[in-house]
Amino acid sequence: MYCIVLLLFSLPFYTVHCAVPPKVKVSSSESESGTKLHCWVYGFYPRDVEVKWIKNGRDEIYSEESAEILPNPDGTYQIRVSVEVTPEEGATYSCHVDHSSLEKTMVVPFETEPGHRSISRIVMLILAVFFLSLVALGIYVTRNRESKERFNLLFCTYPWVVWPPLP
């Protein structure tokens, strides 16, 4: 019994020091001025971590928002670093995570969903064709209505004129 009591009293003074590697997810969202890239790093221990966005493998992109490391209920930590970018043709973006549990920096590339841009172009093309069809239909109906009014006006003014002429 003495050993159990001694263990319970001394347990708070002992901590297990283990390193838990981070998990990383990257995503994007549309904003007013372009695209916002998000790098969510979670489930890591100890608390200290460095997270940054890199453009084209060498240029660091600085975030306008301050990123705060938050605790998880299980004793690990999480952080989300977001940057605002204007998409450029051929530009690549990647989230770089440096943590004491990793032998080397973890690099997670941001990849757009395949076909995302082509789908939006197809939708825009379909909407443009639909809009132009409505405009053409409106012009056709308006002209057709005017020609009927001219015919009725001609017939009422000159009732002896039969249109089309009878053989």
Automatic annotation (TrEMBL):
PROSITE patterns per UniProt: IG_LIKE, IG_MHC
The keyword Transmembrane helix is annotated on this UniProt entry: yes
Positions of the Ig-like domain: 22-107
Gene3D superfamilies tied to this protein: Immunoglobulins
GO BP terms, alphabetized: immune response
Annotated keywords: Glycoprotein, Membrane, Signal, Transmembrane, Transmembrane helix
Keyword Transmembrane helix: yes
Top-level taxonomic group: Eukaryota
Signal peptide span: 1-18
Membrane-traversing stretches: 122-141
CC terms in the record's Gene Ontology section: external side of plasma membrane; extracellular space
Protein name: Major histocompatibility complex class I-related gene protein-like isoform X1
Organism: Xenopus laevis (African clawed frog)
